[in-house]
Amino acid sequence: MAIVLIAIIIILSACLIAVNENKQLNYSPDAIGSSRIIVSESVLNVTAGSSIYDNYTVRLVSGTTWGTYINYKTVNGISVSFSNSGGDPTYTGTMNIHVSGNVSPGSYIISLYATGDDPGPYTNVTVNVIAHEDYIKIVSEKTLQIKDAAGGNLSLTYNNVTLLVNVRPGTYAFINGTYHKNYNFTLVIFNDNGLIKTPAGYNNYTINFIFAFEVNGIISQNISLVNSTGSGYPVITYMKSPENWISWTYIGGMLSGKDFYPQGGSYRFIDKWTYNKTMDELVNDQFYKPVLWVVMSPVHEYVQPAVYRGFIPYISAVAVIIAILIILSTVFVYMPGYAKKSPSKINRIFYLYISMAFEFSSMVYLIIYDKFLRTAAPLHYDFLIAAFIISIALLVPVVINKYRKAFLITLGSLSILAWIGLIIDAELNLPFSSVHSSIPNYGWEYLFGFGTGAFSSFNISMGFSVFFVSIIITGIISIYISMND
To answer: How does pLDDT run across 80-108, given as a tens digit for each residue?
Structure first.
């Protein structure tokens, strides 16, 4: 009787949460349909190493609107970012298509598709990549006049990435054996048109852009930025980019006006950047030569996380807690067959029911509401469903006191293994998902970030945290009871 009541209350509680969230999102519980992606231009021409824009519309074809997300598939070296990656169709946006300079001339297909609760078929966009020139061009630059070695700051933004450099006070330019306290310091950014390839062994990286320092309009390793004693005095460089971006120092080549001819140059070493989590930026304190730095990022197919618009997480969190309290109260009232046993045994089995009530509630919540896990990590989602079914199956013999010891040992062992598996999942960045290895620390941020990062939310992290704590408690109590009952 108790297990039936528990199941009923869990389902009713989940429905209450669904009603609450649907009010927040203005969604309907039966809103399942299909959508279609329409683009302004189905054929685009772009030079290798540059970007082009295209408008798109995610239009509802059938059913009722629900959360729907746009994604893409294409070849390495071509990436797409969306101004509006998800919402209730119909909605519109602009996509930025960037073609790396490593992409050979030819025609390539970008397949756009919709995921979520209104999925849609592929919409193909043809990108004709045109050959590039034999030089790279300056696409952005700023100059700082240094007087009396006073230093100063410069910043440039290119493709939504901001570079900021700090020429510290007391920085001299050492040119042809002479110290200069008055000089022009320039920060420049070049386009990537494929002349400079990625280093050997870095085929899984794509070049994003190239930047350099100029001193009096010259790029050369023979010039140094030094302090008053002649020691190298690096310019502090800040890059607002993802943590997994890297750069290599490239030495050689020749600057001619606004064009740089890299022929004869080569990579020398990978640069050391430090990630500042507080400011969400990479920092380098070793650049003191006016040379080139080639900025790269890992190649991956990026899947937009399911971010719910207009979501108020605390209301759903309270609903979950209330549901758990209702379940625990019911378990306490209808606890079968233990009233005549010793108080210690009553407490032990009651604590097991408490932990499993929290465990069931968190699993039901995640199964219903973690749409990203369902679409981007289906194996993880299937494991969650399997864990829920197995837990109920193992709990039934415990409740009816049938072969209880064997089932308690099994329940405890599987719970502990699942707890360990959750830690491994977080550390390995959800290894069976489509975002595996694409974002550093993604697993920990997604599962336990509580909305502090771009890929986490309060509700989902709360669900996983409740599951994480309750399942290890279930494991420990189950094995303890089996050994002492």
So the answer is: 999 888 888 889 999 999 888 778 888 89
Read out DSSP for 229-259? TS-B-PEEEEEES-TT-EEEEEE--EEETTE
- Are 172 and 227 contacting, i.e. CB atoms less than 8 angstroms apart? yes
For the whole model, what pTM was predicted?
A: 0.42
Beta strand extents in 191-242 (DSSP E only): 205-215, 224-226, 235-240
Sorted by sequence, the CB contacts under 8 Å of residue 325 that are 6+ apart come out as none
Q: Is the Cα dihedral 222, 225, 227, 233 positive or negative?
A: negative
The pLDDT of residue 452 is above 50? yes
- 479: confidence class by pLDDT, cuts 50, 70, 90: confident
Taking the C-alpha atoms of residue 436 and residue 250, their distance in angstroms, rounded to an integer, is 30
CA distance 297 to 284: 16
User: In the structure encoding, which two tokens stand for residue 23, read together?
Assistant: 């009010």
199: which 2 tokens? 């280093």
Long-range contacts of 445-453 (CB under 8 A, 24+ apart): 446/305, 447/422, 451/313
What six digits make up the tokens of 9?
Answer: 């209350």
pLDDT at 347 over 70: no
Triad 469, 471, 476: Cα angle to 5°:
100
- Strand bridging mode 43-47 / 120-130: parallel
For residues 182 and 462, the model is more confident at 182
Single-letter code of the amino acid located at 274: T
Find the helix or strand (DSSP H, E) in which 202 lies: none
User: Which of 310, 313, 191, 201 is CA-nearest to residue 246?
Assistant: 201
Say yes or no to pLDDT of 218 above 80: yes
**126: closest CA among 52, 44, 55?**
44
How many residues are given for the chain?
A: 485
